[in-house]
Fold:
Amino acid sequence: MKLDLKISGGAVLDGTGTPAMVTDVGVCGERIVAVGDLSTVAAKNVIDAVGKTVCPGFIDVHSHSDTYLLLEPASHSKIFQGVTTEIVGNCGASAAPLAGEYKLPSDWLDKNYPGGWNSVAEYRALLEKVKPAPNVFLLIGHNTLRAGIVGYEPRMATESELRQMVCSLEKSLDEGGGGLSTGLIYAPGMFAPREEIVGLAKVLAKHNGIYTSHMRSESKKLLDAIEEALSIGRDSGCRVEISHLKASGKNNWGLLEPALDLIRNARELGQEVAADRYPYTSACTDLDVVFPDWAAEGGRDAVLQRLKDSATAERLHDDLLSSRSDDAWGDITIGSTTHPDNTRFRGMALPEVSEILGVDAAEAVIYLTKSDELKTGAFFSGMSEDNMLKVLREPYVMLGSDGSLRAPTGVLSHDYPHPRCYGSFSKFVKMSVNGKTVPLPEAVRKMTSLPAEQFRLKDRGLLVEGNFADILVFDAGQVRDLSSFGNPHQLSEGIDEVIVNGVSTLSSGNLTGNRAGQFLAHRANAT
Structure:
């Protein structure tokens, strides 16, 4: 036997969480064919991994790279962190299926793509044509389905509309989708009753799909939100993934332990539920998430029209002022902006913006969202670091960046992203090495076999014979994240080799130009 690739003498962490074993890994084609002493086996290419860690490729279970992969298929910010699989379509928004009134999220909407699509099959075909570097697993967004069939109005779906949503979900799963995601703080998902989601989740149960949820609350109503997510799983029979598990706002930090108890108890009773988290204490989303529900009704055009109407804008101003205390506005920092006059505010705390504009915080929010046409990004602090570390240590919690890919040059280098887009996995490795979270073997499990099992990624997540050759080589002590809130477009360092489906994608810390990612069609990954 002659191997295509031999990785020799590395400390192999196989993804199970067991201690490292110094050995060799052999690859033929896209599969691992041997793990053991391969010193007498010839190979076309050899990677000397002595003194380094060898492990499965990392799986980003909470990515928003859906459409960005069409623009930058090299996936720079993720590959340099060692991410070999991105699970996209999270928080209720997916690239497909496109129908009716549904509009892509604002940061996807204004880009020019290499082709058009509507269905999951068409999106998949376009993605496969551009040949992404990482593997891609697609969730179907509930907001995507609902907006396309029901619209953005604050009402229940009719029986006919529910049937249409079920049919659309069925078709999307048949075409390769792997589950359903909800974003229940965003319109129109915020208007959907629990029963609607249960009905859709029952479709998932038939397809062995997964239900992931950005819940209705991650602050004062956190426990109610977790109860709802768990009940949807119980009543439908499908697996549940709680997205970016956190307790936001200092007054709510004490809710974390009861929240963890709810999840632990459900797991002890046999429910398949897990969660993900990014290793930062600031969240990131559109600034208009602070708007009251009534102001988010009707979709993007309707919201912009309200901002232009002086009487409605005054009502919004008053509601915003009463929605949080004066000091709470300091938890908001401006991220991406689109209007040229607003570039100066990137990375600036909202109270500073208010002072420069000579208005109060609520008026500053209205000014930014109006002038940026609802494309203002923001960072929201207010999470406890102790709580974050506690969540990351939970055995069922995996890593999810909650970020879309970026690149330091090109079309995806012009905004102002959260550092998690560039640094989540590198930071978690560094935290592990520094003794802040869990030992490295367990940290690797959380980024490899745990997500592969939860999302049913067949033959991935473990370094064993027969599995796909998604493999990393790195010196754990040298891995570090460089992206910051002051200078976000910085690639991580320290990952030496990234191999995706047997193909060298990163070699000696540099992109090779070779891309071998696959669309992981759910039917092909079901167990």
